[in-house]
Amino acid sequence: MAVSESVSTMVAARRSTAQQTRAENRTLTKLTIGPSPWVRAGALAALVVVAALWLLPLAWGAVTSFKHEAEAALPASWWPSQGWTLDAYRQVLGNSELLGWMWNSLVVAVLVTALTVLISAMAAFAFSQTLFKGRSLLQFLTVASIMMPGQILIVPLFKQMQALGLVDTFAGIVLPQVVAPVMVFILKRFFDAIPAELLDAARIDGAGTWRLFWTIVLPLSRSILVAVAIFVFIGAWNNFLWPFIVTTDPQFMTLPVGLSTVKNAYGVQYAQNMASAMIAALPLLVVFMLFQRRIVQGVATTGMGGQ
Amino acid sequence: MKTRQGTSGAVSGSRPSRAQGRFHRRSGPSGAADDVGLSRRHLLQAALVGAGGVALGGALSGCATPEASGSGRTSVMIWDLFSGGDGALMQEMVGAVAKANPDIAVDSTTLAWGAPYYTKLAMASSGGRPPEAAVMHMSRLAGYAPGGLLEPFDLDALADLGVTQDHFAPAVWEKAQFDGQLYALPLDTHPYIAFHNPAIAGDAGLLGADGRLAIAPGADAFLDAGRAMAEVTGETGVSWGYLRDPAGCWRTFWGLYNQNGGGYDLTPGKPAELDERAAEEVFEFLQEMVDGTVAAKNQDGGAASGRFMSDRTGVMFAGEWDLPMFRDANPDVGASPFPAIFDQPANYADSHSFVLPRQARPDPAKREATYRVLAGLLKEGLTWASAGHIPAYQPVVETPEYQELTPQRDYASAAEIAVFDPDAWFTGGGSDFQTRMGDSMTDTLSGKATPASAVTRILGEMNRFLSQPSPA
Amino acid sequence: MTASSTSLSAPVARPSRRGTGTRTRPVADTARSSLRARDRSGYLFVAPFAVATGLFLLWPTVYGLWMSFTDQSLTATESSFIGIDNYVEAFSDPQVWTTLWHTVWFTVLSTVPLVVVALLMALLVHTGLPGQWVWRMSFFAPFLLTSAVVSSLASWLFQPEIGLLDVWLAKLGLGPVGWLTDENVAMFSIALVTVWWTVGFNFLLYLAALQGIPQQQYEAATIDGAGGWRRLFSITLPQMKTITGVIVVLQLLASLKVFDQIYLLTAGGPNGSTRPILEYVYDMGFTNYRLGYASAISYVFFALILVFTLVRLLPTKKEA
After folding, report:
1. Which residue has the higher pLDDT, C49 or A95?
2. Could you tell me the domains of chain B?
3. With an 8 Å Cβ cutoff, are C12 and A152 in contact?
4. Where do the segments described as Disordered lie (chain C) (predicted)?
5. Model ipTM value
6. Which of A290, B182, B189, B270 maximizes the CB count within 10 A of its CB?
7. Contact check, Cβ <8 Å, A215/B58
8. Which residues of chain B have pLDDT under 50?
9. H or E stretch covering B350
10. What's residue A195's pLDDT?
């Protein structure tokens, strides 16, 4: 019963936050554009138009993906005369390596996110809460490396991966992506704000550094860690250039690389192309719909480099 | 130090994935109870795992080999660049070969055609996991073979499978050699030819008794024929789309330049040499052709084939690989070698061939299986020919079945007078060179510049390529 | 995400600017050093990050610099030192300058709308009108797509004759437009796609900034009788100045690194008219195998970005 009780409290809480938000939004409307119904209608109309424009390419792709191939190649019509079909999806899922690439993308994105968050948080913690020889030098180097655009390193990095035998391996795809000095700084600024007394108290109790990090700092920083993780995950899932350079075997390609490198032997098929695109787009879109608030916050806080 | 040794075995050894697993496990909730000393040890492990990129690499690549090799069959991967009709036929041939060799799992992958294909192939051969075999344009061989990215074929092994030199046209076989060894196994010859619409050509009086296109040799005769067809259609006579098709421009030019007896010297480090007069004559002819009557001005490839397929022109210059498309529009479409505009017999062509990318870890079983698959594919040439390509494996061409294929048999002779791209590391199908060449002549073809200026620009571009060090 | 998605090492290779965030408390080092000083295990915590940075950022940077002075090729194992030959060639190679110009041109074409449209979107959403969830979703959704999906969708819209855009133009009696095939149009089409794709990111940054404006300011202005437009121009927009500066700089740095969408939509064509410098690096290094020369071009480009970054850091220092 406790469960249902807590669920009902949660639902009630949600409802009340929703009501609260609605009230806040009404106030906001009054404050920003005033009470005039005309201005309001105008702004709403503008929103509708822009949103429609922004959803149009996706909608058109989705419509095409449910058409028969023969009809997809006819000049644009939103409503197919031959009816809707799942043929394109069946073809794509049955005959292509799409699911394999998706799996690769997932593995790569999860590994990149986990490793990036872990090593960035550890480094940020060290910069923020410990003293050691060479700290300022390392900190300076980290700042400096923020200015290094990774894209210009594709040539030496490929050569390096070739020498290490990491071309066409997950390690080769993942490792160069885990270096994210910006994230170290975002996290460091957050860790700086952790009350010193809290850590000192734990130290007096004899807690080791690892324990400070793991049981105090990390739990206190859950929100920023999630924000960083979200940001890193989106970037890794969508990253194109490096996986494109370092994979040549179609079996190891990530979704974006596979989609754009391996072609259908049976020619350009618009409905199937769009079905692949929809399948590739779906995971992140669904995740976004489920966790919109979190993701919006995460991107906004992380996107500016933690300003 | 002790800890380090303790973990280093796991980290740099054969199964470093355990180190990673240990790190994750220990640094979990139990880590909270550890004392200072222990936590340091964990940190060290963590550091080693995080830092040991190479070792971790081994772990990740070790656990990530997605190859399903449980079936006991030898897997042979072949890359190709065929899409559309070609792709479907290649799949059919692969299917037939796989059926005949049940112990081999043939995995054919189609990659995006053009520069990206060759780039990926080079990158795979130079450090990745290259396929066992790959399709390559013969014209690219000069850029590939010297770099050590390919392995030569073993003639004895091929002979055991019934594939020998006398089964191929001499011009093609010779082009497949590098440094005295066979580096490419030719699958076909695909010339740039002239398609015709029999009804229109017939009305213009250009068909011979055998139903083939009969235009007298020489530039004037061809232009007259074009005008005659233009009269029939009421529009233009010949479809040639030169805009936004640099490769098409280059193919036309190089074929005609060879017909006009032009030679070349492309030696790296030295200025390019062409017969400038011969080249100018070619441009003069092409300018004359693109006069709005014989062929439309400012036409691109799409518009050119659109006009031809909707019966608004009588002749179309195109690669034979467009045959399926034209035949869909007009089942009676005819074809013949590129018209003789100048004196020498020559027909621009390229050849799809199979090459063996260099393997980091050669596997005799795979190699043997690969040879069997490739020989099998050559012998499926009749299927391949249905798309328009002329099979390189002559026993196929000599079959009665092939001799009944129309219009394929009508242009098969183009293979005998085939001229390929000039030999240099930077030339060939899908190369930047072809694009640059084509782009240099667009202004001249559309009448905005003189023939001489196109020649100057071509030479300039060639010199730029020659001044770059050969990468191999 | 022009750059974020293409970035190698970080999803956002963006310089952080240290401002005074509300959450950050200035911490005097000495205040906590007593206990911290005893904690000397910090280097162990930095080690994984430091080693990863060393291996996959610093070492390739040094190695690439070395390569730029050699004739290293993709295919050959040996290479020799050739001094500054590659740089001499790069400075006299017209393609370097052409592709550099394309990169700058794309940056200009994309940055302006990416900032202006994002601000307009944020202002509209910040009105608190109903449907907040839908608006945020619509504007931000494209940002979540990978470049491969974006370019599939875009080339399908741009498809000659049967693409939605040409069909609609034809209905209006216009077109067809050579969206990706006309040299004079292609770069605009690419910028258009880029705006559609990545504007959601800047939109969220603006929205966060707008939400940071204290409501009392609006209330006070309302009491003073300021209308909606007055409030927009005298309260909202002035407070967007700082963030706009930041967004512009982030966007410029991101746009300069353009590669994905151009490579996938036109591969630099038609007639090389959209090829950005990063693609030239790729083409030179991997298509023409000239790794040494490609490295030299990368470093010329890097020097440019570095100068740009440093120039923008100078005023910040003066302020501080």
Report:
1. C49
2. 74-187+351-403 (3.40.190.10), 192-348+431-467 (3.40.190.10)
3. no
4. 1-33
5. 0.88
6. B189
7. no
8. 1-69
9. strand B347-350
10. 86
